[in-house]
Amino acid sequence: MNLGVRAILMTMNYLLIPLLLMFDCAWAQSYQVPRNEYDQPDLNGVWNFNDSTPLERPERFGDREYLNEEELLTRDQQLSTGQQRRDERESNVSAQILNVPTNDTGAYNLFWSYYDEPYPNARTSLIVHPSDGQIPPTLEGVTTQFSPPPSNPCNYGGVVITDRPVRVSFAALSCDRPEDFGLASRCIGFPQTFPPHIKANSYNNNLKIVQTKDHVVIKSELGNDPRIIPLDGRPFLTDAIRYWTGSSRGRWEGETLVVVTQNFPYTLSSLFLRSESYGSAENMVLTERFTRVGENALDYEFTIDDPSTFTDKITVKTNMSRLNAPIYEFACHEGNYALENMLRAARITERQ
User: Fold this and answer.
1) Percentages helix, strand, coil for the chain, rounded to the nearest 5?
2) Model pLDDT for residues 305-319, shown as the tens digit of each residue
3) Where does residue 323 rank: exposed (0-12), middle (13-18), buried (19+ CB within 10 A)?
4) Beta carbons of 179 and 161 less than 8 angstroms apart
5) Cβ atoms of residues 225 and 245 within 8 Å
6) Which of 7, 134, 149, 308 is the most exposed place for a label (fewest CB within 10 A)?
7) Which domain range does residue 148 map to?
């Protein structure tokens, strides 16, 4: 395409963004949600929850929840530039692996990632409560663990993991036993859909919703455990039964699916992120709200209520877009070769 024509089209696109967002808000208010065969709001399908909005609000925005027109244009330009960089990187992957002497093959190419945001989020942060858009302080004595992924899981560097159980996603307390590795390394829990609040990460930001008359099933592309949520008013499981994904019960409030989850194990953190975790989810109550606001748009909100960990509740809002594609099998399982080999390598190093 001629560069001049392309520049004109990009400029028109930037000018249309605010208009599209205003139209989308009005459209959402008048949108009639289709019903399924059980006369429920139809949430069936594959939904992508990729969202470039940061979890916490940058300080410069203060208590302002939404971006202004100029900030929206700047963000769109940055997203466009980022896509160009990713395209260039992808085109050079083969040459990099074949021609550059390195022990790092790159592991993942862009096939696993989807960066489009058909239903853009105009907020300054995903956190909308507290009003400053920040994770609230934890109570005195609450354990917080940090785990930026190291190249060697037993070479911690700045990783702060001081006690068991390990509630982080990556890294490890030691390479002495499987339980000392992060939950993602053990293929147990992943920061996108665990425990089970949903938030965008680097890839596999997709889930599938399937409805029946008395249940809703939510299957994440990242992870192994579909959530089967009863809608029939049955009581929660007793305290004696605690799954990694908790005990979930759903109900309809108008057009919104409300899911309340509790009875998490103490080994799970209350807020589980890619590089950090906060407290224990043992006493946490998680409330999620799914509301379809357009043919290909869904509003998602979750609230963490955990007075044993945080001084305040946390409410997060993100946008989901219908994805006209299947989700793929995530072939990760406990007992895989990677974990076995990391333990074996540690024993060999000790002998040497």
Assistant:
1) 25, 25, 50
2) 999 999 999 999 999
3) buried
4) no
5) yes
6) 7
7) 128-322
Q: What is the C-alpha separation between 193 and 205, in angstroms, rounded?
A: 9
In degrees rounded to 5, what are phi and psi of residue 343?
Answer: -65, -40
pLDDT value at 11 more than 50: no
Q: Residue 252: beta bridge partners?
A: 257
Rounded to 5°, the CA angle 214-217-218 comes to 150
Q: Is the pLDDT of residue 43 over 50?
A: yes
Per-residue CA distances from 3 to 7, 10, 99 (Å)? 6, 10, 32
- Kindly give the residue spans of alpha helices, DSSP state H, lying in the chain: 3-30, 69-91, 93-99, 337-351
Position 37 in a domain: no
Which residues, 6+ apart, have CB-to-CB distance to 81 below 8 Å? none
Length of the chain: 352
Nearest to 49 by CA among 316, 262, 272: 316
Is residue 245, in this structure, part of any structural domain at all? yes
According to DSSP, the β-strands at 271-272 and 215-220 are: unpaired
Q: How far is CA 2 from CA 6, 7, 9, 64, 157, in A?
A: 6, 9, 11, 40, 49
First CA to last CA across the chain, in angstroms?
A: 60
Return the closest-CA partner of residue 186 out of 151, 223, 158, 152: 223
Side chain identity at residue 194, one-letter code? F
Alpha-carbon distance of 23 to 254, in angstroms, equals 23
Determine the number of helices (DSSP H) and then strands (DSSP E) in the chain: 4, 13
For residue 285, the Cα-to-chain-centroid distance in whole angstroms is 18
Residue in the block written with tokens 């940058």: 58
pLDDT of residue 10: 40
Banded model confidence at residue 263, pLDDT cuts 50, 70, 90: very high
Nearest by Cα to 224 from 239, 209, 244: 244
Cα–Cα distance for residue pair 195/271, rounded to 1 Å: 8
User: Does residue 329 sit within a domain?
Assistant: no
| Residue 86 placed within a domain | no
- Counting the structural domains of the chain, the total is 1
